[in-house]
Amino acid sequence: MDATLVIRGGLVLDAAHFLGPADILVRNGRIIEVGPPGMAAPDGAELIDASRRLLHPGLVNAHTHGHGNLGKSLGDRWTLELLLAAGPWIGGFDGNEEKRLSATIGAAEMVLKGCTAVYDLFVEFPGPSVEGMTAVAEAYQAVGMRAVVAPMVADLTLYEAIPGLADAVPPGTAQAPLQDWTATAASLRTILRDWRFDRDWVRPALAPTIPIHCRDPFLEACRDLAAEFGTGLHSHLAESKVQAVVGKERYGRSLAAHMDALGLIGPQFTAAHGVWLDAEDMALLGGKGASVAHNPASNMRLGNGVADMAGMLAAGVNVGIGTDAATCSDNLNMYGSMHFAAASSHSRGPDPAKWVTNREVLEAATIGSARVLGFEHIGRIAPGFAADIVFLDLDAPTLIPLNEPVNQLVMGEDGTSVDSVMIGGRFVVRERKLLTVDLPRLAAQAAQARERMEARNAGRRSNFECVAPIVADFCPALAARPWHINRWCGC
Ligand SMILES: [Zn+2]
Fold first, then answer.
1. Rounded to 10 degrees, what is the CA torsion of 215, 216, 219, 225?
2. Could you tell me the distance, in angstroms and rounded to a whole number, from the CA of residue 272 to the centre of ligand 1?
3. If DSSP codes are grouped into helix, strand and coil, which group holds residue 451?
4. Burial profile 5-34: b = 16 or more Cβ within 10 angstroms, e = fewer
5. Residue 91: is its pLDDT beyond 70?
6. pTM above 0.85, yes or no
7. What tens digit of pLDDT does each residue of 402-442 get?
8. Ligand 1 centroid – CA 369 distance (Å)
9. Residue 224 contacts by C-beta under 8 Å, 6 or more apart in sequence?
10. CA 207 to centroid of ligand 1, rounded, Å
11. How far is the CA of 479 from the centre of ligand 1 (A)?
């Protein structure tokens, strides 16, 4: 984009640092200068009035699933394992246009709620494809937001991953085996090799979904592909207590220790959730420069618990904030995720010294998440960074009066103050209108897709309804077993 802009008259938050009144010079989508109000503008620069606006860097969603948007809010009282059991029903797409549609719904919601970049772990069956990932990448490109698109892959079903579960459900109801991991790894290689999108905007990564759902040679193949192509690796690590228990019994060590022994943990690695990481796991992740994508809304919704974000930060882990999917946290509202990150930290106990601060939460949702995505040029309003800027309306009730911007952004804002959103120097949302998507048309397409999916997946739904009571009993019983690794005796 070849254009020079001066954004005048706003109050500026550079991540969690409140600068007060400042003007912003933008050229070709990048911030050149953040200066005093009324600073000189180059000849020909477009002037953008930001009076009565609080400007903050676009929020960065460190973890979602674009395939979940057509299956939004289908379940109540679902644990993670029930959600996974429902996967074939709620995520059964037919063709790439449904994948594009699903990703577009999420992207539209995110930008309207002040989020300008996302890490999307998108699953396809029977395996990832160039065409499917291209449709997802094009969806983000068309909406005008940045994304890391990571094919989410596994080679073991829930019923193979959890010992005894396949035998506990009626014959013929367990999910059929997945395709061989070597075929999946070959597809991943093709996707990475043929990636044709501008990596400043949409880049690929790899998401071996959950360690216990992947055989070790498959995890190692993902590790090698990530190293060869210089991409991120993102996996759900110790999300549920069931996973922590099964991991201990299968590997004889923690999930994090096992991933480390296989060579997956490093600066390119993101552990999603990390609810059941212990102090040594956190020290391991922090020491290796790894990240955690903290998804507090989903952790609570699925009964997984409250992750120790303050403990992670103290251990030197880079923490980003995510919404997780619309199937398990219902909306993709990063303001809500920040609120949950702060409030759930408080819920861990009465000692405020052990809580995260609102400043830490806002930094995690901007700078921390940007590092999770591997996008070094986003997350701040500062020279050299991309002009990904959210304009909040200071005449919106949530911000009347403006007492303490960081606290109000993290604890009070719910997206209703978002007036405009600029990404790479271009308005994607202006005066509360999304400029890149025809929302009524999107809604009509989604309604049609929903009807098709309901008819197509009726058998999978009844299968889920058959296994659900068994999974709902079996997994909590499994989770009652000891999970903590006794590192002295190895038991
Ligand atoms: Zn997830």
1. -120
2. 7
3. helix
4. bbbbbbbbbbbbebeeebbbbbbebbbbeb
5. yes
6. yes
7. 999 999 999 999 999 999 999 999 999 999 999 999 999 99
8. 15
9. none
10. 10
11. 19
